[in-house]
């Protein structure tokens, strides 16, 4: 938030993450919302949005950006789309990418991956050094399914939320 000089960080929970849902089972949106709310409690000036859940259907960043900008009124705020740097190479595959690249600046958060990805032409990108924790959300789920600790990668409030909702239990 400091690097980008943000007034607030809006954590948007996808209803149907259309690029993932055909590939694997997706944790229900309301459970992902609860985990995001638990995480937001630990981030100053962070707010959680269910804009994509309430809209229903596949979640497209371009629709969310358009709606957020329309509701902001003039003058339009600068809108950053914060993503892991590993997603940069695929930005042109996103729904209505040509529209999205006009609406947002992509804030690419570094991940411990090699080589450094390159964004397709035409995207405005700023780089943000992220924590160099070499663990993915898939790895977190796999650890939990095996009964292993994730305390090194997940905030305590999120771990409590996962336990309360009985998510990622062994044998699921």
Strand content: 5-15%
Q: Give the oligomer, counting copies of the same chain as homo and different chains as hetero.
A: single chain
The biggest sheet amounts to: 3 strands, parallel
The low-confidence parts are none
| Structural class label | alpha/beta
* Widest sheet: strand ordering: 3-4-5
For the residues shown, what is the average pLDDT? 88
Helix content range of the residues, please?
Answer: 25-40%
Taken from the alpha-carbon principal axes, the silhouette is globular
Number of strands: 5
Task: Compute the CA-based radius of gyration.
Answer: 17 Å
Order of helices and strands: EHEHHEHEEHH
Structure report:
The protein is of the alpha/beta class and 172 residues long. Helix content is 31%, strand content 13%. The chain has six helices and five strands; from the N terminus they run βαβααβαββαα. The termini are far apart.
List the defining traits of the structure above.
alpha/beta, two-stranded parallel ribbon, 6 helices, 5 strands, globular
Q: What topology does this entry show?
A:
Layout: E1 9-12, H1 29-40, E2 46-49, H2 51-55, H3 61-72, E3 80-84, H4 97-103, E4 105-109, E5 125-128, H5 137-145, H6 156-164
Parallel strand pairs: 1-2, 3-4, 4-5
